[in-house]
Design brief:
Elements: E1 3-8, E2 12-17, E3 22-24, H1 30-34, E4 43-45, H2 51-54, H3 57-66, E5 75-80, H4 84-96, E6 104-109, E7 115-118, E8 125-132, E9 140-152, H5 161-171, H6 173-176, E10 177-187, H7 196-199, E11 204-208, H8 225-232, E12 239-243, H9 253-266, E13 270-273, E14 280-281
Parallel strand pairs: 3-4, 4-5, 5-6, 10-11, 11-12, 12-13
Antiparallel strand pairs: 1-2, 1-14, 2-3, 7-8, 8-9, 9-10
Helix pairs in contact: 8-9
Bound molecules: zinc ion (2 copies).
Domain Metallo-beta-lactamase: 37-67
Protein name: MBL fold metallo-hydrolase
Length: 282
């Protein structure tokens, strides 16, 4: 199990990516449902300041402070710089938790930042925020988890395994390989729709899908399934996970998604969705 999520539009949203002990958003009930995993969280990335995405943060910090668990680990919270709502909320949290027993750090970030998840001498994995379009007044981010990988340089492609091994021994592996970056995970946050440039070549795309029928959308603040599927087609992604689904679709979600599931299958894309009122595990 690598991903845990609970999400229902308007009510609450959070996504826990366990390989990097990273939580995206922290809506209501996140501490209750993650239970003792709250101690495993190292980083929290907030997409924006709407209540359904941040209201569980205070509870999470409080639980981590008071329950039995490892308090030596610090917790880092990253959020879109200049987001007023989040800044006020942080001020409040700091004021009411002035005697925390673990180290809590808050970092305002911009799309120019690279937040390193792994690698000391050389970056192996990092997070890159990007702007998304949501409501006018709200500075909102989506996030990529990017892995820095290495592959054999073109000029050595025709060599045998033995010849490559000799070169690697003589000059080091950096000499025969070059690094490239791979998006392994992309999360949209709340948005009208991600751009093709952002989703392209990402292994897993977590896209908000408030509306399963475009006609239900009144404002251009949230995404609809029709638009998302058209975006994913031709974008070379492996897995699409829909979340932030409106609870109005109740039991008909699977049926409404069926035609899109078939379209995506032809593209080689696996489709999953976070059912409102159900803990999602993948
Ligand atoms: Zn929301
Ligand atoms: Zn929102």
């Amino acid at each position: 199990m690598n991903i845990l999520s609970y999400s229902k539009a308007l009510y609450t949203t959070w996504v826990y990516y366990s390989p990097d002990r990273t939580l995206f958003d922290s809506g209501e009930c996140v501490a209750t449902m993650l239970n003792n995993k709250v101690y495993a969280i190292k980083n929290i990335f907030l997409t924006h300041g709407h209540v359904d995405h941040i209201s569980g943060l205070w509870a999470l910090i409080n639980t981590r402070n008071n329950a039995m668990g490892d308090r030596a680990k610090e917790l880092n919270v990253y959020y879109p710089k200049n987001n007023k709502g989040i800044e006020d909320y942080i001020k409040f949290i700091k004021r009411v938790n002035s005697d925390l027993r673990f180290k809590l750090n808050f970092f305002p970030i911009t799309p120019d930042d690279k937040i390193i998840l792994r690698g000391k001498k050389r970056i192996e994995k990092y997070i890159r925020p990007f702007f998304v379009t949501h409501t006018q007044s709200e500075i909102s981010f989506g996030y990529h988890i990017i892995e820095v990988r290495r592959k054999l340089k073109e000029e050595f492609r025709n060599l045998s395994q033995e010849e490559i091994a000799v070169l690697a021994k003589k000059y080091g592996s950096e000499y025969i390989t070059r690094s490239y970056e791979k998006k392994v995970f992309t999360i949209s946050g709340d948005t009208f729709l991600l751009s093709r440039e952002e989703v392209k070549d990402s292994e897993i795309v977590f896209h908000e899908c408030t509306f399963l029928d475009k006609r239900d959308r009144k404002y251009k603040n949230h995404a609809s399934i029709e638009d998302i599927v058209s975006l994913i087609e031709g974008s070379n992604i492996k897995t699409l996970i829909l979340y932030h689904i409106s609870s109005r679709y109740g039991r008909s979600i699977e049926k409404l998604l069926e035609p899109y599931r078939n379209r995506l299958k032809e593209e080689g894309v696996d489709l999953y969705f976070v059912k409102p009122d159900r803990l999602f595990k993948l």
